[in-house]
Amino acid sequence: MAGALESLESCLERHIPPGELAEVKRILYGGEARKLDLPTAALSAAQERDFELQGYGFEAAPEQLRRPRIVRVGLIQNKLPLPTDTAVAVQVAALHRRIEEMVGVASMCGVNIVCFQEAWTMPFAFCTREKLPWTEFAESAEDGPTTKFCQELAKKYNMVVVSPILERDELHGGILWNTAVVISNSGALLGKSRKNHIPRVGDFNESTYYMEGNTGHPVFQTQFGTIAVNICYGRHHPLNWLMYSINGAEIIFNPSATIGTLSEALWPIEARNAAIANHCFTCPINRVGTEYYKNAFTSGDGGKAHHELGHFYGSSYVAAPDGSRTPGLSRTQDGLLVVEMDLNLCRQVGDKWNFKMTGRYEMYAEKLAEAIQPYFIPNIIKEFWMRSSP
Ligand SMILES: NC(=O)NCCC(=O)O
């Protein structure tokens, strides 16, 4: 069964001899992440509320002129609490309740910035290609009930909240977007960031519902650091990560909804590589569980109609600019990952590897501008005898 393995890490811990485990972790994960000492009350609250709670920390070297810039982020992954054919308002209310109890625990753990999974207020129903009732989950990013709910959480817990929702933009023809709303720890709405790249793969039929985002690559200056949101499929696009980083993001969240058969082998690589390439922290978050739809849908591949998109494998983690990473959360359970980081590490690693300095962006800017023109001919060097061949 796709969801049966609890996590890669628990499997390694069980089967690798203790003498070799530290070396395996060094090679696979860049070392053994420091475990955070989380409050006992938070650990018991998480157990009572039936979700996994893990905490890790990344250090930076002490500097003479800058104080450490310590921030705690919280990544939340969760299943749907109710069947997908429950009334829309009842599903949304149940998801609000679930997130509220998880954010309460995040607050006990001193989290400063929390991020939820992609389209967290609804089933990931775009696979069905049906419009109703799924479009009814869309809300205003500015003053919809979910934004108001998150503003209350932000104020109550002095926490920045990143809330990825299905947005209905009433001001511009009532159109839909896949949007992350960013709320300051004061409760004020800081802004929104729309999903730039829309999947055209498998049953991820999102292009039936919304277009590629038009907000570019905004970065939000918060009290705790500069943050950006690269939504799900944007993870596969290195230039997307790059632009958030060029705009100054120190932490890039990647709220996602993706399934085992499609992307699980890519998951540990892409966001971690982005953290390395861009000298920043990246935080990929995936939902968990299998969501069932009453009406069967087809995949356009000659296969039988089915009721499920696939198993969302969770495994949310944080990657640091030096390439190290935390273990992932469970592949099957709701969870909160609390990660403490010193943002000074971004510049320290930048000064060591110099990717921003050696990136030759001017060369690529020029060449990419040429490559997108219809007259562009790829620069392939051929031996003489090949030149006349078609
Ligand atoms: N939600 C979403 O964009 N999923 C696409 C699949 C993937 O990127 O792994």
TrEMBL record:
GO terms for cellular component: cytoplasm. Pfam families: CN_hydrolase. One of its GO terms (molecular function) is beta-ureidopropionase activity. It comes from the Eukaryota. Pathway: Amino-acid biosynthesis; beta-alanine biosynthesis. Signal peptide: none annotated. Its main location: cytoplasm. The keyword Nucleotide-binding does not apply. The keyword Protease does not apply. Its EC number is 3.5.1.6. It is found in: Cytoplasm. It is an enzyme of class 3 (hydrolase). Keywords: Cytoplasm, Hydrolase, Phosphoprotein. Residues 71-343 form the CN hydrolase domain. GO terms for biological process: beta-alanine biosynthetic process via 3-ureidopropionate. Gene3D superfamilies: Carbon-nitrogen hydrolase. InterPro entries: Aliph_Amidase/BUP (IPR050345), C-N_Hydrolase (IPR003010), C-N_Hydrolase_sf (IPR036526). Catalyzes a late step in pyrimidine degradation. Converts N-carbamoyl-beta-alanine (3-ureidopropanoate) into beta-alanine, ammonia and carbon dioxide. Likewise, converts N-carbamoyl-beta-aminoisobutyrate (3-ureidoisobutyrate) into beta-aminoisobutyrate, ammonia and carbon dioxide. PANTHER family: BETA-UREIDOPROPIONASE (PTHR43674:SF2), NITRILASE C965.09-RELATED (PTHR43674). Homodimer, homotetramer, homooctamer; can also form higher homooligomers. Belongs to the carbon-nitrogen hydrolase superfamily. BUP family. This is Beta-ureidopropionase. The lineage of its organism: Eukaryota, Metazoa, Chordata, Craniata, Vertebrata.
